[in-house]
Design brief:
Length: about 575
């Protein structure tokens, strides 16, 4: 290589331009280390070194050589690795010397307006220049550079033996701390977390029960953000729910502010179709249903959904005693507002829905901020009516028109048996089974029974002696019998009296008897039952949903009590 060419290669990264402007995120932005350009470039330079203490060998250099070959660029790694970092105030790059002393400049950062500046002399000397980006959006389309997509890094990291992890981490710390001062511990921790995730190294995060979740961090499909897994907050037969912290891009449609915390729902094996159905329902965009932020798949192909972070019901979150005025008032408000949401879902213009699986576990509260709240903050939002109850776990939702075409028959039982109305319960006659039917009235029954549980803290039929001591198949069969038995009530009158007092017992019983009518033809619609609730509890429409709904700032309940003042 001529002296001119070598000098041009050595100084190339210093000539990348000084006018840095806003640029797209790359993976190291997402991980939180891109602010220290030297540390970023040093890390990439080290990973490219076949002799580095990272266990990758020459995998990445081989990938680079194949990329260059596809471009018609004749460059091969040298026998001795020679990679150097050059950094100026705003930009950085790597200069590699390959076989035959052939130089190569890899540009890591972006430039003003996506224009390539300061490399004319290097290019004139025949030194190839390429960009590097982990993700597809890390370089603007206006950049006049071929871009090497370093998407093979994750696969290469997974090939590192787990036993080499300590060496890798120690060298990683040293490399990252060679920058302009020591990296903040949170940023270093983010990179460690990422490497742990790719190495499948064991950590103290509870994540072993779902196939594909063997890491602390998942990257979004578009690589614009990372989801750092926290604790398991819910687990059922169909999936597991984790808390996640979002790093990288935090703006989502429908939210006025960045979303830093969310939850991730991952499908269990064999239930992928249920998660896909949930995704379809959430994509309809109804504010009364939990909001989907993102969707993707784990390394093992297991689908997941990233959902807004919601809050538990007051009776659970605040451990409110039965009869507590706050418990009664919030139960009524939640019931009324969900009846209005049900009416809107039942009569959607495009695809009206029947949810088919309403129960207390499938109702949560949306509150301002979408972050962890103290008990005092939670109670303040509750008393200010600054919340909205929403439905979650909507995999059972059915298209009303399709249901009606089949006379409400699905050929199977879906939903939670204890909360289903009599007509949806299978009828058993010896070895013959007649499956039940579903309609809009199914949801009315289930929501009314949910209201009873919120008020009293008692489960359906908990008072019935016929179910005492039973479990499993025996419990289910007896429950089916009770559901079909005339006069068998799912609620306990004494529990209602204990919850609301003698004076309001009959008022509540009237609502329950209407919504829990055994004959669906005698059961009111969601809208009709809402009118009864409004009259019984002195509710009035407090607000209408604004044209542009903001998911992280519910202003107030649309239906609110005037009879009971909270706080």
């Amino acid at each position: 290589m001529s002296e001119v060419v070598q000098e041009g290669a050595d100084s190339a990264a210093e000539e990348l331009g000084d006018e840095a402007e806003a640029r797209p995120l790359d993976t190291f932005d997402v991980l939180g280390v891109a602010e220290d350009e030297y540390a970023y470039a040093s890390l990439i330079t080290w990973l490219l070194d076949p002799e580095g203490e990272h266990g990758l060998g020459g995998v990445l250099q081989e990938q680079l050589a194949r990329f260059l070959e596809a471009l018609g660029i004749d460059w091969q790694p040298g026998e001795v690795y020679d990679g150097r970092v050059r950094v100026n105030e705003d930009n950085c790059g790597i200069v590699l010397k390959g076989a035959g002393n052939k130089g190569l400049v890899i540009v890591l950062r972006l430039f003003a307006g996506g224009e390539v500046r300061g490399l004319e002399g290097v290019r004139a000397a025949g030194v190839p220049v390429v960009g590097l980006a982990y993700g597809p959006s890390a370089f603007p389309s206006t950049a006049e550079l071929p871009v090497w997509r370093l998407q093979g890094l994750a696969q290469a990291l997974r090939s590192v033996p787990n036993g080499r992890f300590s060496q890798l981490l120690a060298e990683l710390r040293r490399r990252l701390n060679q920058g302009r001062g020591t990296l903040a511990s949170s940023r270093l921790s983010a990179v460690e977390t990422f490497l742990r995730s790719q190495l499948k190294e064991g950590t103290d995060v509870d994540r072993t029960r779902v196939e594909g979740i063997d890491a602390e961090m998942l990257l979004s499909d578009d690589l614009s953000r990372a989801y750092v897994l926290g604790q398991v907050v819910g687990e059922g037969g169909q999936g597991t729910v984790y808390t996640v912290v979002i790093q990288g891009e935090q703006f989502f449609p429908g939210f006025a502010n960045p979303v830093a915390e969310a939850v991730m729902k991952v499908a269990h094996g064999g239930h992928e179709a249920n998660l896909e159905r949930e995704r379809e329902v959430m994509d309809m965009g109804d504010p009364g249903v939990v909001r989907k932020l993102d969707a993707g798949a784990t390394a093992a192909g297991t689908p997941y959904l990233i959902l807004e972070r919601l809050h538990r019901l007051p009776s659970e979150r605040l451990s409110l005693e039965v009869g507590d005025p706050l418990r009664i008032a919030s139960a009524v408000d939640i019931f009324a507002n969900l009846l209005q949401t049900l009416h809107e879902l039942h009569f959607r213009r495009d695809e009206p829905l029947v949810l088919c699986d309403i129960k207390p576990d499938n109702v949560l509260l949306r509150m301002p901020g979408h972050c962890e709240l103290s008990d005092d903050e939670f109670e303040a939002f509750l008393c200010e009516h600054s919340y909205e109850p929403v439905f979650v776990d909507v995999a059972c939702a059915q298209d009303v028109h399709r249901l009606e075409e089949k006379d409400g028959k699905l050929g199977e039982m879906i939903g939670t048996p204890a909360y289903l109305p009599p007509e949806s319960i299978p009828e058993l006659d010896g070895d013959h089974i007649t499956m039940g039917t579903y309609s809009r009235k199914t949801d009315v029954y289930s929501l009314t029974l949910t209201f009873y549980v919120l008020l009293t803290g008692k489960r359906p039929y908990e008072h019935d002696a016929n179910l005492q001591g039973l479990s499993g198949r025996e419990f289910l069969l007896q429950l089916f019998t009770l559901k079909r038995r005339e006069g068998a009530l799912p609620y306990d009158e004494l529990a209602i009296e204990h919850a609301v007092g003698v004076s309001d017992k009959d008022l509540v019983l009237e609502l329950l008897n209407a919504g829990l009518a055994a004959d669906p033809d005698e059961r009111p619609s969601a809208q009709a039952l809402l009118k009864q609730v409004e009259q019984a509890f002195g509710l009035e429409p407090h607000r209408t949903r604004p044209e542009r709904y903001v998911y992280d700032g519910p202003v107030a309940l649309r239906q609110r009590q005037t009879r009971v003042e909270l706080g």
